[in-house]
Amino acid sequence: MGFFTLLANHIRCTVCLSVGLGGLYLGVLAAEGQTVILHEIAWMGTADSPQEQWIELYNASDEYVSLADWTLMTASGSISNRLSGRLAPGQIYLLGPHQQRELAGIPVNSYLSGHLSPEGEELRLYNRAGRLVDRVNAWHAGCNESYATMQRVYPYTAGSHPDSWTQSTVRYDSGYGTPGFRHPPAYTEQELNQVFHGENTINVFFNQSALTEFAFPNNLANHRINLEERIIDRIRQARRGIDLALYEINLPAVVDALMERAAEGLPIRLLIDAKPEQDADRNERYRLMRVYLERMLRGLDGQLGTGDSIHIFANSPIFAVADPDYRAAFGLPRHPSDIPYKTLHIGNGQQSGHLLVEGAERAPNHYYGPGGQMHNKFILIDDYRVMTGSMNITETGIYGTYRNRMARVP
């Protein structure tokens, strides 16, 4: 009850209404976020010189962002740049080779202070408050033979996720890349027509296209919106904590974003729905969700009960997946031997296994069965912003199909 009391007593926020493929989605947002990302990296240099490395930042938000006192640096210390200037929505910030005012005829905004190792670097972008805004932990794409850059294809997925990057196929004077320009996106362009800022305002988003000719004057819909991007954007902006009450979750990018924030020390709590045995498709989705739950419980360090673990509770007990090959495919230990093995009274029967998530007790040592579904979809950010509605945080709930998700089409 404490979690739902928290939701009821702390919603002082703006509301966003969105329609997903899984149904209606209601999200509460106080203001559209400021999101500057690492956009393109020429870690291999150019055909003129491997030393002519360059990096692009991109303002993926719908607001102006001041870069005054922001810092771009590598974990190794090979680069440390203090940034300046102001980025308009959709604008590129280009850091070029030292003392080189132009790159392929494009003026640079700043010079790189050093050089990137072609073997790989951890590149970090900090805002003026010293908060990590984006990072890359390896060269996930690019080619030092054809001088093809590493380009971002999915702006709200973590920069450390390999699927966030691809190798450029656009030719320019000194290799393959798009210095100073936003490369052709692999996801549908969003149509933002009305976004309200401040408290007590309502924003409505649709993930499919809308017929704006039927709208009232000055009331065009926000449509073609990738709702997963919106969720990840809010997770990345959280300052004090995140609380979630979800029927289901299986989007790897959302899970990765939550785990990265938990590793930074942000308190995260998840209330999730346990599932009864159903048809093969639903059972497979539940197995997938359970490995993601275990990943969140283990955190980035892979250990249960440490500082980067996400706190998870369910309406009914949830047991760990036992299949060793399936577990290994998701980076989990082949055997959940560090998770207590228990036999519990659940509903009208007993169930045994490695107890992954505690459930609600109806009497001492007797738990409610999973049949009474907890079908909520609440995400509470900083006790201030809420996203809620009828769209599940799943592949089918947002995209409909795996092919749609991989094509980045909302």
Summarize the structure in short.
This protein is α+β, with helices and mostly antiparallel strands.
What's the topology here?
Elements: H1 2-9, E1 15-20, E2 23-27, E3 36-42, E4 54-59, E5 65-66, E6 71-74, E7 80-82, E8 86-87, E9 92-96, E10 102-103, E11 106-107, E12 110-111, E13 123-126, E14 132-136, E15 150-152, E16 165-167, E17 171-172, E18 175-176, E19 202-206, H2 227-237, E20 242-246, H3 252-263, E21 268-272, H4 280-298, E22 311-314, E23 318-319, H5 324-329, E24 341-346, E25 349-357, E26 361-363, E27 366-367, E28 377-381, E29 385-389, H6 395-398, H7 402-406
Parallel strand pairs: 1-19, 9-12, 20-21, 21-22, 24-27
Antiparallel strand pairs: 1-2, 2-29, 3-4, 3-15, 4-9, 5-8, 6-7, 6-13, 10-11, 13-14, 15-16, 17-18, 20-28, 23-25, 24-25, 26-27, 28-29
Helix pairs in contact: 2-3
Description:
The two termini are 34 Å apart. The strands form 7 sheets. This protein has an 8-stranded mixed beta sheet, with helices on one face. The protein has a 6-stranded mixed beta sheet with strand order 12-9-4-3-15-16, with no helix packed on it. Strands 23-25-24-27-26 form a 5-stranded mixed beta sheet. With 410 residues, it is of the alpha+beta class. The chain is globular and about 75 Å long. Strand 26 and strand 27 form a beta hairpin. It is 16% helix and 28% strand. The protein has 7 helices and 29 strands.
